[in-house]
């Protein structure tokens, strides 16, 4: 077992990796990791939906829609994500309705929800631009061929433009997804019990800040490596045989 | 069969299947088509020839509504193409078009390229479409390539897939816009053979081409365009053998 090793390490070297021998801290660490992964997955999902819908809407004929999307991108790309998060949580959170939980009241959207919304919308503003550049890379001659075969604009977007645009923008998308995974740690400031928050409560209980910082770094390095690997596999899987060779 | 009822027109097959009347098209200040009259009967094969930039592509694209016209009328089976009320899908299932650059869907296999439109657009039975797609691919000599991706094929092979893809919609008319212009000489022939077979089967074809020998051999009528106008038209024997207009003579002396 690894527990005795870390216990000895604590006693002899004074390096206290409490989660590796203390069942309670171990439970907290796992919980924090799980919530962190959940949070990141939700944020990425929200940002992708916004990216696709926003990029699609940007091709709209309506000036109003195009203006609104441009304004959204400008605002969310040019302000710090932490300011956005605080705005959503404290600004909008204060005016959202509360639900009766049988005696006490809870906001309809909790801190986890606000973190997903705020950071998802932040990441979405980049994804709109990323998808847009992907869409622009799809040759108009290809969509014209689909048009000539009777495809409606919507079917062209779903079956031709989007699959090709997605492939073209995958490298940029990978970068943004990784950046979002890291930005998700900001949820710490509104007390979402994800990994950073969990480890900070462990280190304030055990006074083992450096050790827990090391764990935190290791967690993110491994997580980011896994995302990068996953995206790379996806890129390989979606590669068009013979294309661009 | 999921074919919807044909829109009401008084068109009968003894009238032109394609009829253009005084078609004009401007891009900004540039007038590219300056009053084109052209008609094609069912089963006819017509060729449009002319110098580069004379508006041949623009002309052929007005026939399936890809390029809107500025003035004039384009009728296909009696139906005005440039009418806001027109059912675009009904028009496009009737007309197939093949482009110079093939324009296959690079993320789909050859078979999927051919099957996509009938399945997704016409909602036809997938099995039936697949059967038809396979036999069309066999017809264009591409059996065995069903699962290849477009980028794995030669230009000539890709162009034949594009033809099969159009044919799978069972069109009444096929438009070809310089479909051999991007091909190496040895691949030109295989594509022309395919088109020749189609023509022989009675498919109505409108071809823009630089292959004068082919035009002479296959076409019922040749139209010569220059600077947005049809300068001369007639049976190939006459247009190639005894051109009347000075511009036709000059063009032919350069390309023949
Ligand atoms: N979408 C467009 N916008 C502006 N100008 C255009 C457009 N499409 C074509 N043109 C112009 O219209 C003219 C005719 O073009 P078109 O492509 O119809 O010629 P073409 O006879 O097919 O020539 P080629 O033999 O080189 O294919 C050209 O001067 C071209 O620059
Ligand atoms: Mg052309």
From TrEMBL, chain B:
<comment type="similarity">
    <text>Belongs to the ABC transporter superfamily.</text>
</comment>
<keyword id="KW-0472">Membrane</keyword>
<dbReference type="InterPro" id="IPR050086">
    <property type="entry name" value="MetN_ABC_transporter-like"/>
</dbReference>
<keyword id="KW-0813">Transport</keyword>
<dbReference type="GO" id="GO:0005886">
    <property type="term" value="C:plasma membrane"/>
</dbReference>
<dbReference type="GO" id="GO:0016887">
    <property type="term" value="F:ATP hydrolysis activity"/>
</dbReference>
<dbReference type="InterPro" id="IPR017871">
    <property type="entry name" value="ABC_transporter-like_CS"/>
</dbReference>
<dbReference type="InterPro" id="IPR030679">
    <property type="entry name" value="ABC_ATPase_HisP-typ"/>
</dbReference>
<keyword id="KW-0547">Nucleotide-binding</keyword>
<dbReference type="InterPro" id="IPR027417">
    <property type="entry name" value="P-loop_NTPase"/>
</dbReference>
<keyword id="KW-0067">ATP-binding</keyword>
<feature type="domain" description="ABC transporter">
    <location>
        <begin position="18"/>
        <end position="252"/>
    </location>
</feature>
<keyword id="KW-1003">Cell membrane</keyword>
<dbReference type="InterPro" id="IPR003593">
    <property type="entry name" value="AAA+_ATPase"/>
</dbReference>
<protein>
    <submittedName>
        <fullName>Amino acid ABC transporter ATP-binding protein</fullName>
    </submittedName>
</protein>
<dbReference type="InterPro" id="IPR003439">
    <property type="entry name" value="ABC_transporter-like_ATP-bd"/>
</dbReference>
<dbReference type="GO" id="GO:0005524">
    <property type="term" value="F:ATP binding"/>
</dbReference>
<keyword id="KW-0029">Amino-acid transport</keyword>
<dbReference type="GO" id="GO:0015424">
    <property type="term" value="F:ABC-type amino acid transporter activity"/>
</dbReference>
<dbReference type="Pfam" id="PF00005">
    <property type="entry name" value="ABC_tran"/>
</dbReference>
